[in-house]
Amino acid sequence: MTPDVRPLVAGNWKMNGTRAALDQIKAMAAGVDGPLAEKVDALICPPATLLYVATALSTDSPLMIGAQDCHQNAAGAHTGDISADMIADCFGTHVIVGHSERRSDHAETDHLVRAKAQAAHAADLTAIICIGETAEERKSGQTLDILKRQLALSVPDGATAEDTVIAYEPVWAIGTGLTPTVEDIEAAHAFMRAELASRFQAAGRTMRILYGGSVKPGNARELMAVENVDGALVGGASLKASDFLAIYNAYEALTA
Ligand code: PEP
Q1: pLDDT tens digits for 86-125?
Q2: pLDDT of residue 62
Q3: Rounded to whole angstroms, how far apart are CA atoms 150 and 113?
Q4: Which residues have CB under 8 Å from 152's CB, separation 6+?
């Protein structure tokens, strides 16, 4: 955790969830509507098809709803894409950009991720910018170099602690059940904090840095307690309300 930084527990449903899954959103909206919401934010990013209904279901709850990607342009001839304005129009508040699955499935570059983050900011959305090394990069000792490059190139100038969240997601930890050691997470987050503080000064000292990659109810408390870990980006374990809420509620002990 970082002193005076409000943690964020964010769920990424990826390409999962039809209308039947809206019951999970309802349960999450009810589950986060308690005293912990005064200290910890909760966000779910369902597929774009569920965005509008999901925001309607959570209007009376602190649960926020976001999207998983946006186009870098405001509008135009881009079949199949959605713009940041469209997300905001559905009352979404956040958008994930640069997730490793977008970087690998769609060959997204740091340059493009930065443009998407800028598009998000122009629509008054908070951009959750994902970075992280592959297994090969880690094995060859390049982790911090990769994080330095991705932070430098994917995060736009002028990013603030309000409009930008960094999500550190080691690619090899996503969906594998593997996580770095607590010491490795601490070292990576300390490095990112120093990079952000040097580039963005005060904003960089309080910009949230989430950890993502196989976060589960069983390891959330240990991982979220690490210095400079300001929340989680959760994939698989965010599909079920009971798991997502168990991760969110790990903060009961951490913020007591
Ligand atoms: C993710 O895809 O952002 C993620 C962290 O997935 P998982 O929690 O399933 O590893």
Answers
A1: 999 999 999 999 999 999 999 999 999 999 999 999 999 9
A2: 98
A3: 9
A4: 195, 199
- Does ligand 1 have an atom closer than 6 angstroms to the CB of 174? yes
Residue that has been written with the tokens 């210095």 in this structure: 227
**Tokens representing 126?**
């908070």
Helix (H, G, I), strand (E, B) or coil at 231: strand
Best mutation site among 130, 233, 244, 248 for ligand 1 pocket (most ligand atoms within 8 Å of CB): 233
- E strand spans, 88-214: 94-97, 126-131, 164-168, 208-212
Write down the architecture of domain 8-14+39-234 according to CATH: Alpha-Beta Barrel (3.20)
75 C-alpha to center of ligand 1: Å?
Answer: 29
What are the boundaries of each domain within the chain?
8-14+39-234
Q: For atom 4 of ligand 1, which residue has the closest CA?
A: 235
Maximal C-alpha separation, the chain:
50
Mutate to test the pocket of ligand 1, among 215, 219, 240 (most ligand atoms within 8 A of CB): 215
Q: 43-85 pLDDT, tens per residue?
A: 999 999 999 999 999 999 999 999 999 999 999 999 999 999 9
Cα gap 181→241, rounded to integer Å: 27
pTM of the model: 0.98
Would you say how long the chain is, in residues? 256
